[in-house]
């Protein structure tokens, strides 16, 4: 079949924070679109938005919505993906899913294009976009692993509220104002909207992202652990994670400890790998206080790495500080990049 | 010599954040004071404050200030301690120093009373109070180390701005208001007042506390590494630290990974040690979302521990979340507790 030059693209969850970033990126990157279909829940259907200078009416997402759709980008929550992604596939679309619904399924590739692009070719209709904290970590670690091997990862995260959605952003603003005005802070949402207790996030740190599993780890922590092994194709890799929600709006930061396999690796060797890596920017010069922060990485597409240093006791141990915009590389951008790769490599 | 029943106590840095907390604790704990002497820089001298219902005039700290002083509590910065602590000792006072000036000196005990109280007996006039982040970590780990051995610690910190002084607290407030009002944030102080560059802390995270050393670690990180080994009397212990300043006012939190020496240690065994430990409170129940946070630990004297869980890959590895008020147990309270122990054990 001759390859198309423009595609019918559906965005499911078009009114959400990630959905809107996806639409913005499709425009900015001149994604080859024949027809765009913006889908949402019944509640948001009927709204009109401007896409590529045309007014588009948002429609309610239904199984029939996916007739004639080539690529469907889902970011409307796990239950919508579970219900509608198979319907989209049945009608011939390739789904790129931003939820955790299919990530650990064996026949679903879990992809960060800089890391395991070739896995896209193996798809059976659904390709999963990894968790935001996982994406930026594996993007930074892949070049190091390829060059020197890595057998141990211990990460502590510093995660922005926007990862919990637009309402969490509002909650941080409201609580910050309340506290600065000497009022009691009202907590209605975080750490997890569906969980029993809510704690203030403003001027605080919450060591819970997503609900707890029976093993004492949160789902967010287990996502980082399991997804990292799957994306890096290394079931033997040791991965530990502690995930913490913090009072900033955009970008996740990560304090990452790794142990490499090779002897005599120097900080300079790791710098060199990071400098040459796709999608990664090295910002690391203690002498000039150069390191990435959540604010400096916001609205940027790359994964930023700083504070690379050798462990004092373990010659094979290294510490890194990894920061990226959680809504861009951590979500919308990675989704669009998968779609671009699908087309470029004729893997639709 | 018969022991006194009340002591002449000097507080050096009486107008600072820690100095004020020290005075408050001396009052609250009915510290046996004969005469209090409040000392400060020339600039603050002459101010009057109320202590134990008496008005006390703050005096400029000079060598002669320490005549007749039994116990001198220093928290006015390293250069003041370097200049005046020896003068106080020469005049017969025992100095408890809250700065980093003497911490790593061989003949100066570095003490957390719950951990190495007996070291106080070895003093030669000066006892050092450890770094705030170190104190809470060793308080939580000592009972675990005693019971099961620990040979590896990797910590990532989440530190409050009050650790950088009262001006940093004001900077966080000002910047937060600026950002919430859509104004540009002005950064004049953090991460380190004396360093070249300043970055906003509000709605951000700064992976720099204190200045950088030549090895790429900050002084704060090296303090945690070196002080932990000294307090725990274990030069062979592997310790790694990444220290991050965050936009909250009070309490430091720490994501701590440890490796124990004994086989077959269970989370329940660690819980039991923490439950029975002096000055430590276990707050750990994922089912009820129970864990400490900076806000929940603020204004409390104990070190709070939650999120205890076994590493998934290393049966001897455990993760903990340790939180404590950085101005209380991290500074003023630990200082007062050392003074109490000096008296109680007749170690003056």
TrEMBL record, chains A, B:
Binding site for phosphate: 103
Family note: Belongs to the aspartate-semialdehyde dehydrogenase family.
Subunit structure, as described in the record: Homodimer.
Pathway in which this enzyme or protein is active: Amino-acid biosynthesis; L-lysine biosynthesis via DAP pathway; (S)-tetrahydrodipicolinate from L-aspartate: step 2/4; Amino-acid biosynthesis; L-methionine biosynthesis via de novo pathway; L-homoserine from L-aspartate: step 2/3; Amino-acid biosynthesis; L-threonine biosynthesis; L-threonine from L-aspartate: step 2/5
Keywords recorded for this protein, A-Z: Amino-acid biosynthesis, Diaminopimelate biosynthesis, Lysine biosynthesis, Methionine biosynthesis, NADP, Oxidoreductase, Threonine biosynthesis
SUPFAM superfamilies per UniProt: Glyceraldehyde-3-phosphate dehydrogenase-like, C-terminal domain (SSF55347), NAD(P)-binding Rossmann-fold domains (SSF51735)
Source species of the chain: Oceanobacillus polygoni
GO MF, any single term: NAD binding
EC number per UniProt: 1.2.1.11
Species lineage: Bacteria, Bacillati, Bacillota, Bacilli, Bacillales
Protein's name according to its UniProt entry: Aspartate-semialdehyde dehydrogenase
Record has NADP as a keyword: yes
Gene designation: asd
Binding sites annotated in the UniProt record for NADP(+): 15-18, 43-44, 162-163, 326
Active site per UniProt: 132 (acyl-thioester intermediate), 252 (proton acceptor)
Alphabetized CDD domains for the sequence: ASADH_C_bac_euk_like (cd18131), VcASADH2_like_N (cd02316)
Domain Semialdehyde dehydrogenase NAD-binding, first and last residues per copy: 8-123
């Amino acid at each position: 079949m001759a390859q198309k030059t423009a595609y019918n693209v559906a965005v499911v969850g078009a009114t959400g924070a990630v959905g809107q970033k996806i639409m913005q990126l499709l425009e900015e990157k001149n994604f080859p679109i024949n027809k765009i279909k913006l889908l949402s829940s019944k509640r948001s259907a009927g709204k009109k938005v401007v896409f590529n200078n045309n007014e588009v009416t948002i429609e309610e997402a239904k199984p029939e919505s996916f007739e004639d759709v080539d690529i469907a980008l889902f970011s409307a929550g796990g239950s919508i993906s579970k219900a509608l992604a198979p319907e989209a596939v049945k009608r011939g679309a390739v789904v790129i899913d931003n939820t955790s619904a299919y990530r650990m399924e064996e026949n679903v590739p879990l992809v960060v294009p800089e890391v395991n692009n070739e896995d896209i070719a193996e798809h059976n209709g659904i390709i999963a976009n990894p968790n935001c904290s996982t994406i930026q970590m594996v993007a930074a670690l892949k070049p190091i692993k390829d060059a020197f091997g890595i057998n141990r990862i211990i990460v502590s995260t510093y995660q922005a509220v926007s990862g919990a959605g637009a309402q969490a952003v509002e909650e941080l603003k409201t609580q910050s104002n309340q506290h600065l005005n000497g009022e009691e802070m009202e907590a209605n949402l975080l750490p997890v909207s569906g969980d029993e207790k809510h704690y203030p996030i403003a001027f605080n740190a919450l060591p819970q992202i997503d609900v707890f599993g029976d093993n004492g780890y949160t789902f967010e922590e287990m996502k980082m652990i399991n997804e990292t092994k799957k994306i890096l194709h290394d079931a033997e890799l040791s991965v530990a994670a502690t995930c913490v929600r913090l009072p900033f709006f955009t970008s996740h930061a990560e304090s990452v400890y790794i142990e490499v396999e090779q002897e005599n690796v120097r900080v300079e060797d790791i710098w060199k790998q990071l400098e040459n890596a796709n999608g990664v920017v090295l910002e690391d010069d203690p002498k000039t206080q150069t390191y990435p922060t959540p604010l400096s990485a916001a609205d940027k597409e790359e994964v930023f790495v700083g504070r690379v240093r050798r462990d004092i006791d373990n010659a094979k141990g290294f510490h890194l500080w990894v920061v990226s915009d959680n809504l861009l590389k951590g979500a919308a951008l990675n989704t669009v990049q998968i779609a671009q790769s699908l087309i470029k490599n004729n893997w639709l």
